[in-house]
Amino acid sequence: MIYFDNSATTKPYDEVLDTYTKVATEYFGNPSSLHPLGKISERILTQAREKSAELLNVSPKEIVFTSGGTEGNNLAIKGAARQNKGRGNHLITSTVEHASTLEAFRQLEQEGFDVTYLPVDSEGKVSINQVEQAMTKDTILVSLNHVNNEIGSIQPIEEIGQLLEHFPKCLFHVDHVQGIGKVPLDFYRSKIDLCTISAHKIHGLKGTGILFRRNSVLLNPLFSGGSQEGKFRAGTENVPGSVAMVKALRLTLDNFKQSVQNLETINSWLETECREIEGVFINSPKNRAPHILNMSIPGLKPEVVVQALGEKDIYVSTKSACSSKHAEPSHVLKGIGLSDERAESGIRLSFSYGNTLDEAKEFVEVFSKVVRSIKKVVEDREV
Amino acid sequence: MKYNHILIRYAELSLKGKNRKEFERKLLETVRTLLKDFKNVRVQRTFGRMFVELNGADEREVSNRLKNIFGIHSFSPALKVDLNQEKIDEAALWAVKDAIPAENGTFKVTVKRPNKDFPGRSQELNYHIGSHILRNTKEMTVDVHHPDVEVKVEIRHEAAYILCKTLKGAGGLPVGTAGKVLLMLSGGIDSPVAGYLALKRGVMLEAIHFHSPPFTNDRARQKVEDLARVLTQYGGNIKLHIVPFTAVQQAIHQHVPDSYEMTVTRRFMLRIAERTAQNIDARAIVNGESLGQVASQTLDSMYTINEVTNLPIIRPLVTMDKLEVIDIAKEIGTYDLSILPFEDCCTIFLPPQSKTKPNKNKANLFEEKLDIEKYVQEAVDGIETVMISSKKQVDEEFKELF
């Protein structure tokens, strides 16, 4: 099996599953219970919070455990906008965000907020100038992703954060779901107020994530209920999931240090080789995250290519998993100025630690054959 | 531009005559320990001052550590530039802008020129650099008597040094220069602050906590350990002595009338603390009492409770208002922990009414029914000592999980 769909989700590490099983069976008490079983669950959750804070270079108080990326983005965006609506009603994001961000903003538009969707350049980036010009005295939130989930472009988060420091009532949210463990980001230096992370993109389990909430930033919670997670996220804590996530985070960050270069090698090797295949165009910018490579085969339906590769036990995707069931062209590829033809035929390869250059070689072999044979069928019919 | 040095000024150290060397050495040791994880940082001591060479480390991160160290009066990040007039002007301007980003304050320039080869006299240089700053900032003005910032330029043989921003240090004396004390740490708001203030005067701290399971639970104990961990930021590792106190409290509850229960309990705590202090060679007991705050802290109560020991009792908070204490607690990071709602040994057997003016003789009379020596010795023998270190460590039993 060649699994090149790590931006959709990753396979949980065995160690992560071991941790999950152990915590779920041995420390099953509710952290809010007063008895010793509750106390030990609370203790282990506290330690998970401390450990994750240490790994992310933030303070334990700033960690909110969530159910993943979508919840993190929703809590950050809606929570910050609703909490601060007295300060202004203007919000800024970009046109190439993940569905959970864009849909949250659409909902806020219906609630009466004004949203500016910044267009991006051909590399998928917004510029500091654009942000500066879009800022008004009513702007209370800027939300951008760090690494684009479809093409892997990297936004100049640190520079934008430094700019936003001059607008004290505007919060800065960063969707770091694709970036964590692949492209380093210093939350404090980048003046980030809110930052979303999801565990299942880094070999953790589905249904777990972290929202970094800078000290003193208040959010209007999505859920009403108990006072868990500093009242920002009611509901009995997912202790085993959170502990398992911390393990996944640690292992991934270790892997980053050791083998991010390997990812870069695979990625650039594949780019060179795929360019050679007739009819294949690379969509990802040159400067991109080490684990994402997007390309188009105009004229071919990408679903067909994905299916054909699937039959050979090779797994890639069309666009973001969360939008892949819609037939429209990719909003990201259109966003960077590609034609409809290119935008509706995108294929995304996404890697993680554990993928090898041998897999890449095998992929190119199969992929070029698949492209040739499907092209032949399509072209024959046209004649 | 980036700062390459930080100049540290001592607090009262320079007054301390013969001990000065020892004090400086302790401070140097503390600074080095606290900056240990910045690999390239070097710390040096020269002529009544201390220098941190940053060698690329982030000035703000290093400053954040320095501001918690007792014995430092103030410190200033410094720029080192080549002996070149333009570069000096530029650096001075940058330093002013860094100190006052809004560019709307007052300043003065003070040049010292030990390197007489450098052209221009100090006065001329003052004028020259000052003009450069005035021309290139928005609303800065000169005030040579009470400036908001003083731009100090030292032109030495190897390079020129420019200092401007001055950050306040924690003051006090270097930890470890004043001998050892035992802190009575309850888990409330006051006692950690008392510990902090004692550390500020240079003591080495160990802590004692009275634990009464099952009336106080493990969460309360955890809370005390966490509080002690916060204090380690200011004074290094802390030994925490946990006293099993259930038997004593039950005995008191049985034999002493309600209104004297609190008084007698406090007297026992003090006896146990005193004996522990002797065992660890501590020369004083520190607690968080504030005059008149609660029944046990009235002057009459202190008089009656204090009777059982000759050891000095240091009460750093004795004249402080609760709100002042809370302010410090918030500043040093103990407040959020302190307000976690767990029962501690003081609240659990709280009688409906305690004497605010207990009588010494009566207290002695009631205690006659108790075998004081036995209870004190048993409690001391049962002490469990844990070492609290500043590193946040994962508990041994959970280690493999992370």
Automatic annotation (TrEMBL), chain A:
It holds the Pfam family Aminotran_5. It comes from Evansella alkalicola. Residues 2-362 form the Aminotransferase class V domain. InterPro entries: Aminotrans_V_dom (IPR000192), Cysteine_dSase (IPR016454), PyrdxlP-dep_Trfase (IPR015424), PyrdxlP-dep_Trfase_major (IPR015421), PyrdxlP-dep_Trfase_small (IPR015422). Keywords: Pyridoxal phosphate. The keyword DNA-binding does not apply. This is Cysteine desulfurase. Its cofactor is pyridoxal 5'-phosphate. It comes from the Bacteria. The keyword rRNA processing does not apply.
UniProtKB/TrEMBL annotation, chain B:
The keyword Chaperone does not apply. Pathway: Cofactor biosynthesis; thiamine diphosphate biosynthesis. Residues 60-166 form the THUMP domain. Its EC number is 2.8.1.4. It is found in: Cytoplasm. Keywords: ATP-binding, Cytoplasm, Nucleotide-binding, RNA-binding, Thiamine biosynthesis, Transferase, tRNA-binding. It is an enzyme of class 2 (transferase). It holds the Pfam family THUMP. It catalyses: [ThiS sulfur-carrier protein]-C-terminal Gly-Gly-AMP + S-sulfanyl-L-cysteinyl-[cysteine desulfurase] + AH2 = [ThiS sulfur-carrier protein]-C-terminal-Gly-aminoethanethioate + L-cysteinyl-[cysteine desulfurase] + A + AMP + 2 H(+); [ThiI sulfur-carrier protein]-S-sulfanyl-L-cysteine + a uridine in tRNA + 2 reduced [2Fe-2S]-[ferredoxin] + ATP + H(+) = [ThiI sulfur-carrier protein]-L-cysteine + a 4-thiouridine in tRNA + 2 oxidized [2Fe-2S]-[ferredoxin] + AMP + diphosphate. Its main location: cytoplasm. PROSITE patterns: THUMP. Coiled coil: none annotated. CDD domains: PPase_ThiI, THUMP_ThiI. SMART domains: THUMP (SM00981). GO terms for molecular function: tRNA-uracil-4 sulfurtransferase activity. ATP binds at M184, L185, H209, F210, R266, G288, Q297. Belongs to the ThiI family. Catalyzes the ATP-dependent transfer of a sulfur to tRNA to produce 4-thiouridine in position 8 of tRNAs, which functions as a near-UV photosensor. Also catalyzes the transfer of sulfur to the sulfur carrier protein ThiS, forming ThiS-thiocarboxylate. This is a step in the synthesis of thiazole, in the thiamine biosynthesis pathway. The sulfur is donated as persulfide by IscS. This is Probable tRNA sulfurtransferase. It comes from Evansella alkalicola.
